[in-house]
Amino acid sequence: MKKAVALMIIFVLSAIWLLPVYVMFSASFKSLSEIGAGNYILFPTHMETKNWLSAFRSLEIPLRNSIIVSLPVTVIAVFIGSWTGYALAMFNFSGKTRLFFTVAIVTFLPYQIFLIPLTRLVVSLNLFNTFSGMILAYVILNTPMAILVTTLFFQTIPKEIYEAASLDGCGPVRFYFSILLPISLAGITSSAVLTFTNVWNEFIIALSLSRDPTTRLAIPTLAGLKGSYVAQWNVLMAGAAVVSVPGILVLIFLGKFFIKGLTAGAVKG
């Protein structure tokens, strides 16, 4: 009986969670008149594939730009974060605890707090409207989270492994590349997935640091697909579906490692 109730609750919650996704895909294939009639839940009477073609044409360059920015940010932030997490988890030094809690606090601060300082920094470096400026800003914003995730995961690895490797003549750099990384793929993957999805789905920083259509990222461009005079909800929903595909693929292929990394870092020992 309890199992049946639990399954029913899971089913209802899953249906509630999936309903907006269904509405998004359903509306993306509907005509504007059908959406205007209020038919949001019903299946489309006629599949309007031109909505997807129109959305993809508008998002083709911004999607490429988002990939150009998201991948380097992920690699750089995870690399810096994993090295810092390695130091925080394996070594003892003055101010270690204060540094860790500072990183934890900064991780959960909203991006809007850093918007003005980051914009002034990027402008002062003549990087406004450039990929380099956005990469710099996102690395600054996402490195603390990468540090936090990797530190928590590395803390689950016994220090005796490092001590034994040191006795065999394995230095810190060699230990990081030869031993720590291979046994920490789940934690590194979790950090990479979180970083990539954060950058890919971010709006306010991308909008503020790029006013040039040639460097505009996907999410700010998506917001403009609705139209200026007539709300083209069908094209907007098709664009939202297109933009969501990379994040969905990342979670499909790396979801197992992502969950393993987060759960392993949640409990020490």
Quick description:
The protein has 269 residues and is mainly α.
Task: Give the tags.
269 residues, 12 helices, 2 domains, MetI-like fold, 75% helix, mainly alpha
Kindly describe this structure.
It is a single chain. This protein has helices at 2-28, 32-36, 50-90, 96-107, 115-124, 131-154, 159-167, 172-183, 185-201, 204-209, 218-223, 233-266. The two termini are 35 Å apart. The mean pLDDT is 88. By secondary structure, the protein is mainly alpha-helical. The protein has 12 helices and no strands. 75% of the residues lie in helices and 0% in strands. Helix 1 runs antiparallel to helix 12, helix 3 (50-90) packs parallel to helix 12 (233-266) and helix 6 runs antiparallel to helix 9 (185-201). The chain folds into 2 domains: 1-46, no CATH class; 49-266, MetI-like (MetI-like fold, Orthogonal Bundle). It is globular, with a radius of gyration of 22 Å.
